[in-house]
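Cross-posted from the bioinformatics board.
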Amino acid sequence: MARGEALLELRSLTITASVADRQLLLLRDVELEVRAGEVVGVVGESGSGKTTLARSVVGLLERNVQVATGRIELVGEVLVGPGTDLTHTARGRSVGMVFQDASRSLNPLMRVRRHLSEVLERHVDGIGRDEVRARSTEVLRRMRIDDPDRVLDSYPHQLSGGLRQRVAIALAVVTNPALVIADECTTALDVTTQAEVVALFRELVDELHIGLLFVTHDLMLASDLCDRIAVMSQGEVVEVGPTDQVLRHPTVDYTRRLLAAVPHWTEGASATHA
Amino acid sequence: MTQLDAKVPTIVATEHVARARRRRRTSVFWLALPLVAIAVLVVVLPMTGLLADPRQTDLDNTLAPPVFLDGGSWDNPLGTDKLGQDVLAQLVVGGRLTLFIGLVGALVAIGPGTLIGVLAGYCRGWVDLVVSRLIDAQLALPFILIALAVISSQGSSLPVLFLVLALTGWAACARVTRSVAMTLRERQFVLGLRAAGASEPRIVLRHVVPNLVGTIVALGTLQIGTAILVESALSFLGLGVVPPDISWGAMLASGQDVLSRAWWVATFPGLAITVVVLLVNLLGDALLTHHDPRKRRR
Amino acid sequence: MSRVLVRKGLRHLGAALITLWLAVTMAFALGRLSGDPTSNILGPMATPEQRDALQAQLGLDQSLVVQYLDYLKGIVTLDFGTSLQFYQPNLDMILDRLPFTLQLVGAGMAIAVAIGVPLGVLAATREGTWWDRTASALALLGQSVPVFWLGMMLILLFAVRLGWLPAGQSGSWQHLVLPAVTMSLYPMAHVARLTRASMSEVLREPYIDSARARGLRVRSVVWRHGFGNASAPVLTIVVLQAGALLSGAVAVEYVYSWPGLGQLALQAIQFRDFPLVQAIVVFGAITFVVLNQLVDMLHVAIDPRLR
């Protein structure tokens, strides 16, 4: 995938929830794209619709939630559109997802090795046992895990929070998807581990030219990692643009208020944070 | 498009909960209603003189079929048993004893069970240790074994039946009330009362027990169903209610040996038990959901 | 690591022994509630001489403490006493009947699990739908029917009316069908309800969402990731129900004239064979406590977090 090519395109995406014979609007006319080798941050308060946006791409919406209008395209093909929902074919194959709570996003009864082999066997046709083993070790190495064999033979509860999150990321990228979605995936981690995970993501994007949709409520974090930022409020994307531009010269009030709510936010604060 | 509203979460939540709560309240009412109706019916109906005498034997009219089969008549709408006794009248009068056993059987299990459970959950320490072990040991003895042990030394009678029901029912009840009392004990309002200098017995009686009432009522309701099933099983085996007393379980026992010739003798009391126990279980379930905030979320 | 395991195991074993001791003590106390079962055994017409003789035979002429110690000694040395009506060691008779009951309970529990688990999973994966409500209602119905009455109805339909299957006795597999189905109903309902409750909790766990996001087959998500984690309480109830049924299937065995432990217990009680009743009660308590231990071990085997 060449750098700069549009990977994920959301076109006038509107998502509604039917609750007690009423239709409630969760996303309204969202326009967004993620290019290969690019990190796009989605920021906003809780309830602004950023998680709905993330989950719509992998088709993990609640049963009473549906795409009303608009479409989602992945690598030029319609994933979700009028009358089509092919998210199940993309999940794990061309889109990987990392969730908020790494300690609980792994099956407690399965070793890490089993998690990885399960995904590989599902998505890589005709893969042999040796290749599964090789790719599992390799992906953990890529996650900067020094002793992949020990981690592979561990159960989730035997690993630290940071390691578990790396394993979760490994699970999302082991099948070489074009796009990775991270939904608040650093929230449960301490500051040091957060920084490590952010650095890891940057490396993955730069080396593998994947696209990353990074959902967070943490503006500092977003400013460290993202090339572009989309600000969401009440189900709409109110502002989108290059990180520096959005954060230094916000055009809408909502973004200004978000920035004002960040303690010690000054112009250029992002530089000191990294 | 006016009904589209972007500020979703709060509205959704409150409306949803209120609606669900209303539905639960009405479901409790509609489940309790037929039970009360059945209870009133079995109490009042024999007084009206509309029914035959349930103990009147008629050896010329044994195993008469119910009215909807060939040879049936309105004299015995549900037929007669092997002694010519009217099945409908027996069903109604037997219902009295069965429901009575269900109610009292639940009370004798719930009473001591709650007391012991609250004591253990609230006092903790060695009391709790002893009680927990006792509960485990009790639950290690299947109910039928306890029944056998007691009945083999005591013979069968109504008081023995209640003793069996108390012995087999208290542990399950104590286990639940113990855990509820344990969480109540640590709740903010109890800690506040204690800090304010309220005496322990007062806290338990005025604040902990009232908070348990919902759970106890629900458990008691479910226990009624269990008691009726235990009664029917023991009476069926000839170890509970025995003739001339009539209960649904005793009717099943007398219907068993004529099953192939007169299916109605055993079928109707069995149906009656099933319907009543099902209603009781549905009601108990609804009440339990009502009082278990963990379950209420669903 | 392994030393921790050993210590844990020993503590478990200690707790089990205490539970067992309490249970057999309860059984002893229950049997002695009136102080003297002989009047009940012999009936009102018995002479004082007869009563004294029986008391001496049962050891009831000694003080309660001595009786209790004798009783405990009997249990520890696996001497369960001698039957009053069969003049045989109680343990031999229990072991004679055990295979029949095991057969019945095994078949019944297999049916219960084979139907109850999928039913509960179905209800949980379609929570709130018509499927769920139907499955839950069926399960509740199953817990409300007197099982032996269901047995009678099955006999009426399949043995008397249709003549497809034998109504009683044992022997061929055809004899096993009706009793096993009857026996399975209550545990099936219990298993279905428990599976549903446990599954619906597990399906809310983040690892289910993330398994779905990884594009795994629905089957793997529901069974490997979902039911795998929801199975612990189900396993517990299956084993404990089996334990309770081993000695507690009296009514079902009676309806089908099945020559198992339950029938033996019923005979014992009808002939007021006090030692045999006591032996069966103690045997039931021991199997139950042993199965309880087994469940704990199975849990450890399944869940690495418990190791």
